[in-house]
Write a structure and sequence with these properties.
The complex is a heterodimer of chains A (about 400) and B (about 180). Helix content of chain A is about 80%, strand content about 0%. Chain A has about 400 residues and is mostly helical. The chains are: A mainly alpha (about 400), B alpha+beta (about 180).
Chain lengths: ~400, ~180
């Protein structure tokens, strides 16, 4: 805001901005409280009319911004967010006037649906983030019905299709990063809404590992900044999944079917979710192939398929110990390849991912093995020295590369 | 059509959508108020002091929600379900639920929620779609302080208008009159 409203050559003092914001918030809050005090004394039609006012006002402001083609980011963000909140206010006030006892899922859905178009037209990132959170909360509120994800995916698809044009343009690259990170986090949350009520644990692992694998692939598709963030988040997700799979206990109850009466519906849902994600993965592979799919990307996809293969092997009679050993070997291979390719290409994300995964696997084995404290301590020291040594090596390598470049 | 005109048209459409969503709520409630049949639902609380009040919101628990009802055939007990309750007026002047069905029939029916944890394969308990009622700030304070208008009020009920499976709360009453 300081940058937006500052007079050229004269910086607007921070205190002035804060006083303006604080004063404005108090003024609006005070007016709302005065209105709330006499709200019950007003007639029904007056209260209904007043409920529409903020919505009409923000729509009017939005029309003015677009008609004048005002480019102020602060103004556009503010009006888009105010419009979204006005939708929530209008729905809440009407519910209060008529004593409607609705449910949060419906409220969140209509709030999200109503606010999205205006948010995108005004290019309001904050309102879009609010939409993403609402869509996720909606999916979570419907989780017991088992079918929240198809609807959620529909919402997300609409959101992405509508906002992609602005994300793709060069000037919105920074916004693209925000959108990618928010999308990753909210989708990860919403995925849980569908897979956690499903009885078979295998579906949860299969869906999440596939999603993280997709995100890893998407991260390598050439969005320099957003892609980096996506790969960091996806690699963290993959580390968590692989560490869980490296424990024998995880494989003991690793099935696609549970024992509840809803198992048929739930398994059906799990299967559809998984297939939808697989479709996204195939789409990702097709895109990634255009940019040369390396061994690490294939390993990420392999990790994504690991729970599915493991569950199938479990049904064929493989023991939890065999599967645990397999998962550990795969995890170690994945980590070492990440380290190797990362060091070769000086890619900090790969190096950190490989190091994190490898040490997480080693540390995890301490929980289910009978090693002495001395041996455990020595391995910890070795791992710690490995990380520190890697940093020193990376720094030297960078400086030598910079020297070569300057010559 | 240039880019600006296109954006303005899109905004107008988005605005109409927003207003229509809110207006449809108003329209639905007004239709219920004008043409619904009015019933009195007795509350479990027998005096205003027994009401649960938070801010301006009074939580409502009805006598019909304490009763168990026969479960309609072919309904899975594990499912969260919504059923339609046939509302009739009892001999005491208060509404009672005659039967539960999966779809409304002739007469006045209201969509109700089946309470999980209070259901088995034969019987179930229901929750009416009226969870709370807003009163004025002064009334809420009096109720919260346990100082109602009357010294000896008896019987509390809510008036509801019902039509085609839907219902709207119109008032909360003591023997002395409405709580506003």
């Amino acid at each position: 805001m300081r940058a937006e409203y500052a007079i050229p050559g004269k910086e607007l003092p921070l205190g002035t901005v804060l006083r303006a914001l604080f004063g404005g918030a108090l003024l609006v809050g005070g007016l709302l409280l005065v209105l709330a005090h006499s709200w019950a004394d007003l007639g029904r039609s007056v209260r209904v009319g007043l409920s529409f006012l903020p919505l009409l006002a923000t729509l009017g402001l939005g029309f003015w911004i677009l008609a004048k083609d005002l480019r102020s980011i602060a103004l556009r963000e503010g009006v888009a967010l105010a419009n979204s909140l006005s939708v929530a206010l209008a729905l809440s006030l009407i519910s209060e006037v008529y004593n409607i006892s609705g449910n949060f899922a419906d409220f969140a859905l209509w709030w999200a649906l109503c606010s999205l178009p205006v948010a995108l037209l005004l290019e309001g990132a904050a309102a879009w983030v609010l939409f993403q959170i609402l869509a996720m909360l909606w999916a979570w509120n419907l989780r017991t019905q088992g079918w929240s994800l198809p609807g959620y995916l529909g919402l997300e698809l609409a959101s992405l299709v509508l906002c992609l044009p602005s994300v793709w343009t060069e000037k919105k690259r920074q916004l693209g990063t925000l959108l990618a990170v928010v999308f990753f986090l909210t989708f990860t949350g919403a995925l849980g809404a569908t897979v956690f009520p499903v009885e078979g644990t295998a579906w949860r692992f299969a869906a999440y590992s596939l999603w993280f694998g997709i995100a890893w692939l998407a991260g390598g598709l050439g969005f320099s900044r957003a892609g980096g963030y996506l790969r960091v988040l996806a690699s963290l997700g993959l580390v968590i999944i692989l560490v869980f799979l490296s424990f024998g206990d995880t494989w003991t109850h690793f099935y696609f079917h549970g024992r509840s009466p809803q198992v048929d519906n739930a398994s059906h849902t799990g299967c559809i979710v998984w297939l939808a994600l697989l479709g996204m993965a195939l789409f990702g592979i097709a895109g990634a192939r255009l940019r040369k799919l390396d061994l690490l990307a294939w390993l990420a996809l392999g990790a994504a398929l690991l729970p599915l293969v493991g569950a199938w092997l479990r049904l064929q009679g493989a023991s939890p110990l065999q599967l645990m050993i397999g998962a550990n070997l795969y995890g170690a291979l994945f980590a070492l390849e990440a380290l190797r390719s990362g060091l070769k290409e000086m890619d900090a994300i790969r190096i950190n991912f490989g190091g994190l995964l490898f040490s997480a696997l080693v540390v995890s084995r301490f929980f289910d093995s009978e090693l002495s404290y001395l041996l455990r301590g020595l391995v910890f020291i070795a791992l710690g020295l490995g990380f520190l040594g890697m940093n020193v090596w990376l720094k030297k390598r960078r400086s030598s590369l910079e020297k070569e470049g300057s010559r | 059509m240039n880019k600006r005109a296109l954006a303005l048209t899109a905004l107008v459409l988005a605005g109409v959508f927003q207003l229509a969503v809110v207006a449809s709520l108003v329209w639905k409630q007004e239709r219920l108020l004008s043409s619904g049949t009015e019933y009195r639902f007795r509350l479990i609380a027998d005096s205003p002091e027994a009401l649960v009040v938070r801010d301006r919101k009074v939580s409502l628990f009805f006598v019909v929600e304490k009763t168990t009802y026969a479960r309609p055939a072919r309904r899975d007990a594990a499912q969260t379900e919504e059923l339609y309750a046939k509302i009739v007026q009892g001999s005491d002047g208060y509404a009672r639920i005659e039967t539960l069905r999966e779809s409304p029939g002739a007469g006045d029916w209201l969509k109700v929620e089946c309470l999980r944890g209070f259901s088995n394969n034969e019987e179930l308990r229901i929750r009416l779609p009226f969870r709370s009622y807003y009163v004025s700030e002064g009334t809420a304070k009096r109720l919260a302080d346990g100082k109602s208008r009357s010294e000896t009020p008896t019987g509390l009920y809510a008036t509801v208008r019902v039509r085609a499976g839907e219902g709207t709360l119109t008032g909360l009453w003591t023997s002395d009159g409405p709580l506003r």
